[in-house]
Amino acid sequence: MGWKTLDDMDLQGKVVLTRVDINVPVEGGKVTDATRIERIVPTVKDILAKGGKPVLLAHFDRPKGKVVPEMSLKVVLPALEEALGVSVAFAEDCIGSKAADAIKRLPAGGVLLLENTRFHKGEEKNDADFVAELAAEGDVFCNDAFSAAHRAHASTEGLAHHMPACAGRLMQAELGALEKALGKPVRPVVAVVGGAKVSTKLELLGNLIARVDTLVIGGGMANTFLAAQGIDVGKSLCEHDLTGTAREIAEKAAAAGCTILLPSDVVVAREFKANAASEVVSADACPSDAMILDAGPEATRAVIAAFGAAKTLVWNGPLGAFEITPFNMATDAAARAAAALTREGKLLSVAGGGDTVAALNASGAASDFTYVSTAGGAFLEWLEGKTLPGVAALEQA
């Protein structure tokens, strides 16, 4: 661990510029999913407990450097106050006199939220002058936004070079979980990679085959790998132009001693809709007028057996079209099996990515995984072996 945490910092009486990700879904002026807000509570409370003054920096949506009233962070204030259990002050800018005055008025034990950092072009450009303006009123920088750490923005990367910097509790938990899952894992390691397209996860697959013992491929991606073996996948979602790439990945996996697990049987249907008439067939027997929408029961048992033989699990992407019944069955069954093994202390399980979190929540298994990341792009880039600017800046600090 090459970065400091809140435990390493003297915060008494200091203004702690705290980068958080509270870019949450909103409908009708109300937050509909407060998960990301709830995840920052330990960091804010620990800063307060150490005598610091948490000043929250965050983005909301994509205003592209302009003030867009409907993208104001003011909309999250009620949910933020409910999660923290304290009133939260709000400043109508993140720099300049409005921010400075609000920070000066902030009493001990108070929390302040500054307006959307992306209202300024300097945020996404990581402009040095904008970074200096953000830093002007702060004493310490705390980055608790792992989900934005793949962006080299002023509030995610630039600030770490201007003042003493550390990771918040959420950032600490994310990095710790990923280090245990892929950095220095207990073997055997199994990874689940699912989703619609191979093309979006080429770098991920390339990195994982050198680092895991078994690679489970599911969803539409599995269809491309089946087609690469000369199997007719009917009308299934399939990137036929990438079958050569799929074969190359399979060859590299074999050379690296990584077993690729593809479905031996599949669930097929003629319509992509909930409760469509479906049947289970061998993976090499998909009717020409049907599409593969889920892994079959035999394939699901094989995945669960792979979990049972493993010590560490990394999961990114569903095994089928989990959004509609009955094509959620493989994902649900595998998720529940992983959760049970985790509860029993037999498996360290780390999962992340938007569809993954939704699928695990739908299955009821998420709460029993060792760690479920709220990050999307950052989680994926970490699995791809890329350096995350926000994390690298903390290490350099």
In short, what is this structure?
With 397 residues, the protein is an alpha/beta fold.
What topology emerges from the helices and strands here?
Layout lengths: L14 E5 L6 E2 L2 E2 L3 H5 L1 H9 L3 E5 L19 H8 L3 E4 L4 H10 L5 E4 L6 H5 L2 H8 L4 E4 L21 E3 L1 H15 L5 E5 L8 H7 L5 E4 L1 H10 L14 H14 L2 E3 L3 E5 L8 E5 L8 E5 L1 H13 L2 E5 L12 H15 L4 E5 L1 H10 L7 E3 L3 H7 L5 H8 L1
Parallel strand pairs: 1-4, 1-7, 4-6, 5-6, 7-8, 9-10, 9-15, 10-11, 15-16, 16-17
Antiparallel strand pairs: 2-3, 12-13, 12-14
Helix pairs in contact: 9-10, 11-12, 12-13
What labels describe this entry?
397 residues, Rossmann fold, six-stranded parallel beta sheet, elongated, 17% strand, 15 helices
Find the CATH superfamily of the largest domain: Phosphoglycerate kinase, N-terminal domain
The DSSP helix count reads: 15
Number of strands: 17
The share of residues in helices is: 25-40%
Number of domains: 2
What value does the Rg take, in angstroms?
23 Å
Mean model confidence by pLDDT: 96
CATH topology description of the largest domain = Rossmann fold
**CATH class annotation of the largest domain:** Alpha Beta
Which secondary-structure class do the elements indicate?
Answer: alpha/beta
